[in-house]
Amino acid sequence: MATYEKLFASWDFCGFMLRSRICVPPLVIYTWGDDTGCVTDRHISHYRALANGGAGLVIQEATAVCREGRLTLDQLGIWEDGQVSGLRRIADTLHAAGMPAIVQLSHAGLMGAVPEYRVSPSGFQYEADGELRTGRALDAEEIRTIEQCFIDGARRASEAGFDGVELHASHGYLLSEFMNTAVNRRSNAYGADGLLILKNIIEGIRGVTPPGFLLGVRMGAFEPDLAAGIRNAKQLEAWGVDFLDVFYGCDWVAQLETPAGYPFNASIYGAKCIKQAVQLPVFAVNQIRTGEQAEAILQDTGVDMAVVGRGSLVNYAWGNDVKAGRDLGHCLDCTVCRWKFAPANCPGRLLYQKKNQ
Length: 357
Fold this sequence. Notes:
Layout: E1 11-13, E2 16-18, E3 22-24, H1 41-51, E4 57-64, H2 84-96, E5 102-106, E6 119-120, E7 124-128, E8 131-137, H3 140-159, E9 164-169, H4 174-179, H5 189-192, H6 196-208, E10 214-220, H7 226-238, E11 243-247, H8 266-277, E12 282-285, H9 291-301, E13 305-307, H10 310-314, H11 318-324, H12 338-341, H13 347-355
Parallel strand pairs: 3-4, 3-13, 4-5, 5-9, 6-8, 9-10, 10-11, 11-12, 12-13
Antiparallel strand pairs: 1-2, 7-8
């Protein structure tokens, strides 16, 4: 059986003792909610299973701060007080498993579900899945309204019992678009400083949440290049964020880089470089499929958490099975993710269940 020196070593994450360095990332469930954005019983069962599967941390899926900023029409929401009671059920579920509760706050921007609500810092077009997406430029008042939506979302998260929030500034979502100089071409302050919107949101959240409330950022390492990603990370650290969860950014303009012969992908390399530039906890994510790979990444990069997404969906007990040396199952990399739209029909999950009946 493999030896895991770091993966299952407990560690102090911002005052919370975690049992492992495995993190389940915020993975949106597209088919379990409705237009109200409210939590359902299926969400609770899902998070209970993930939280008891051996991870040290489970971050609640991207949760919309306003109706116009939804990624899908059935996405969970945190835009009104009536959603707090349902969100509290998820926080309580994560706490019952002995881990802190963190929820990711998002505005989809160009990635929005409804074309007329797709917005961007300065107006932008790109093609995705055969569709030309156009984002209308936001005016200054609209930006301030969106900032307040994030601040109010964090307040509601605190009221629901969450210990912190993660701002979604990656994947080409709105905050990522502001941070990326190839997308953000505004001529005013929000263009001169693409992180200004983050600064205002961070300051606002600190003003409405209690001391010790965690504030992290899911950020792109390449916005549009690694040098910019490192600068962004240093600035976020200076503003007092508690952790950085590193991925790619606006993929359509990202200039990825890895050294020749590097054993992992560009996202992992970007997280390594950012970890070397800051003092706060950094998470690495993308295509981590086995415990041995997760351990090797922790050892090579010096990052603090290995983020396991698809493996956790195929096998809720991924961490427990790694530790016990059992079969993990694996994602089959379907052309269109079946779990995304029909979790019960995920081929990888079905195969795992058949082999482990």
